[in-house]
Structures are given as structure tokens and as C-alpha cells.
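Lecture 7 notes. Example A: sequence first, then its C-alpha cells.
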Amino acid sequence: MNNKDFTTELARRLGLTYKETADTMNVLLAEMTKHLEEGNIVSIQGFGNFEVKKKAERISVNPATKLRMLVPPKLVLSFKPAISLKGKFR
């Protein structure tokens, strides 16, 4: 399911227009992004938690050339599904 399909189905279920639903989704995603950029955890009950984690710098080795290089630290987005969501896929 892509974004357009999801928005269309959500609009149908809520009885809203496609544009109203798309605008609402854009506001939701903007708020989630803002909170994640601030370093907060975003929890959606029954779905899971989104969190930005810092990966430490590390040394990586190119297997072809055996050249060692330093990989700098970076921020990555992680998702931990809720227990109720995990249970549906077992």
C-alpha cells in the first residue's frame, strides 16, 4: 500500500475529502518529525515507538582492499513495535 492508497482509504473511512485527509496527515508527520528532531520519543499506542538513536563511530574494513577506515558517528531512526502489533505477525 502506498501513500496515495492509504490516504484514499483513510479519507473514505473518516468521511473526509482526500485533501483534508492529506493535510491532516502532513500535520501529523510534521509534528512527529519536530519531536524526533528534538530528541524525544514518539509513542503511538498499539503501534509502537519511534526514537532517534546515536550510533558510535567505528572502524570498518573494506573486504576487497583490506583498507581500514573510520566511519563517523551518525543519528538513525529506530522503530520498536508494540507487543500487540508484534503478536499479530507470529
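Example B, a different protein, same format:
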Amino acid sequence: MDLGNFSVSLAVKDLSASREFYEKLGFEAIGGDADQGWLIMKNPSCVIGLFQGMFEKNTLTFNPGWDASGQALETFTDVREIQRNLRTDGIAILSEADETTSGPASCMVLDPDGNPILIDQHV
């Protein structure tokens, strides 16, 4: 199953302090809006999201339709199809994408240890 580009969404207490810290590790902001409390940061091999006040826990995130730089892909597996496959495989859906719509949507599941997994399609 192709879940899309992977990143880790970190629930941070101080966005500015977290940005400065990750910049020292070689990350640079490639998206987001600091005024809204979130940034997407990338280094040569991985992407992280910094989210202040948006998530309770750090979250594994997959973005169907995006490459590692947040650019739209021509072909990808839609989040609604992913959601149907997960449900067929017996995985409980914590929050669902509306299957009567198209375009941007998301769903969330929990792994066996309670770690949230967000499948967040922006295209």
C-alpha cells in the first residue's frame, strides 16, 4: 500500500525554540506558517513538521500526493482508497475522510501502542 511521503509531526511547546534547534541539525523551513503555529522542515534525507498546539502527541504522518519537497505528484493512491483498504484489513479508523468527496482529506489510525498515524492528503 502506498501511503505517500513520510514525515514525523512533532508536538512542540515553543515553535521558535524548536525551529532554531532543528536548524542547528541542518533542517530548513520549506513550508508552513509560523504565525499559525506550524512549520515543515527538511534536511537532505527527511522531513519533519513542527506543530505548536495542534497535536497532543508526536504523530507519524503520510502525505498521499506529495513528494518529499511537498510538490504534487501526478499519480498517487487517494486517502479514501487507503482508508477503505485499512478498514478491510480490520484497522479501526479514529477519524475518517469523507468518502463522498474528492481532493484534500485525511484519516487517522492508532498503532497497537497508541501512536497516532495521520494520512493527510493535500491535493
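Note on Example B: The first strand starts at residue 5 and ends at 12. The longest helix spans residues 15-24.
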